Amino acid sequence: MDTWIKSKADQFAQAAHQHVSAVHQSASKLAEGVLDSVGGAPDDFRKDLEFREGPLGFTLEGDLVVAVAADSQAAQLGVEIGDRLVKVDGYEVPSYESGFEEQRARALIAKWLKEMPRPGILTFELPESDVEDGIPESPRNDADSQTDASGAAKAGAGVLQAELQRVQEQRKKLAAELQESQERGAALQAELEAARKDLAPTARRAQELEEQLQCAKAQNKELLAAVNVGSAEELTRLQRALADAEEAARARTSAAERLQTQQAQEVKSLAARLWEAEAALAASRQQVEPLEQELQGFRQAHEVELELLQKEQERLQEQKQQELQELQGQLEEQRLKAEVEMQTMREELQRSQDLLAEAQVNAAAAAVEARAARLAPPAEAPVAVPAAGEELEDEELRPLDNFAEVADLRKRINLLETRCASLQRRLRSEALGSGPRPSSRPGWELKVAAAAGPRCAALAVAVHGVALGSLRGFTERLLKSEAWLWVFFAHLVVLYTIAGSCSFSSASLDAGRGAVDSLNAQLAAKAAGATGAQSLRGA
């Protein structure tokens, strides 16, 4: 096994050196002289065919065309059975000698044909019979041959120069292939060492078997010696023992040979897998390069987009800051206007209350004067005017002789009081503008009038109507504007959040009560500010 691996490695190295030496010699010959006679250039027996997209239409056995499909590109371009493929898109098809090199060349040709860009040019060489038929007969006249040779030499100088350049490029490629072959040889050498290490137990086993065989031979000699002096039975027994020993030795030897063959096959499979891994690595590198370029483009585009988004975010933040400042300024102006309007409304309310009190006093005085004018005789002095809403007692009136007249006077007094009360309510509604209707007067008015008097009751009803009208107006405006409604709810949430945090952070009940009081004060201040803002907006 070791000998076979060494021989294969030596063959690879020798073939590579021979290939490089042949290329060097051909390049030297082309550079030194000019062809003595030109019967036809080698390229005359080659044809370059351009294949486009689609199936090629021919089948190769190595580099030889063995089948051409009808109505295919190959048939239309003139490819025939027996033509030899020599170039694939400008790359020379490698030659081969051994079976391993042939497999490698076939795989390389298949890979080139698969990855060849379309349209691509394939170069075919005509069969040897066609080449021999195409070679013209050499001229018999020596003078003509010399003339043709010199003309061909002059005309082919440029061709030889181009051929020299091509050969130099091919030398570079072959040098690269030689280096690759050396690297593969090193890898194979490493595998050889590993195989040797794996085969060391087998070699030791074979040596042991050989020692056993020598022992068996020695025993055989002893048996032969014993035959001369021993009995026939002893000789038969020893011969049987010898046969058994030889059979066991042969079985062990065959097992060792089978193991060695199996390991040789494993080495071959490892070499094939190594070549496939190298081909896959080259293909993966070709696939990774465009992917890396595409990834770089995506990364650059993402960076540009991110920069644009950052600029847009900064611009939006500046714009929002400006809008917030403008809204704060507008809110401050509205707050000032609301305070001014609130002060004006308070002054108007005070004037309305003064006018209401004066009207109530005048109405009470007029009622008393009317009653006095009906009850008193014309010559009698005027009586004192009682307070508004008070009834004259029977003992304060002059005694009347006719009770029917007294009843009529009381009815008229009640009627005048009712009319005075209606006039007072109408006056209050006209003064306040948005006061409650007579039908919606509070039920506690009679209780307050009985406890504190009609003036206090009227004043309490007026204050209640003003406060209720303001709250209703604020609520209606708040419901009409969705934005202010959200602001109102938001500040309620903020206030309740503050209240919750204060209640959790309080250490005692007194501290909690203080937080609630402060919350109520803040809520009242916010409600007053919101009322002023809504009044300003409604105005």
UniProtKB/TrEMBL annotation:
**A GO molecular function held by the record:** microfilament motor activity
User: What Gene Ontology terms describe where this protein resides (cellular component)?
Assistant: cytoplasm; myosin filament; myosin II complex
Query: Where in this chain does the entry annotate a coiled-coil region?
Result: 157-262, 299-362
> Would the keyword Transferase turn up in this protein's UniProt record?
no
Q: Which residues form the PDZ domain?
A: 53-109
Show the InterPro entries listed in the entry. PDZ, PDZ_sf
User: What keywords are assigned to this protein?
Assistant: Coiled coil, Membrane, Transmembrane, Transmembrane helix
Q: Where are the transmembrane segments?
A: 483-504
Keyword check for Transmembrane helix: yes
Region Disordered: start-end pairs: 126-155
User: What name appears for this protein in its UniProt entry?
Assistant: PDZ domain-containing protein
Organism annotation = Effrenium voratum
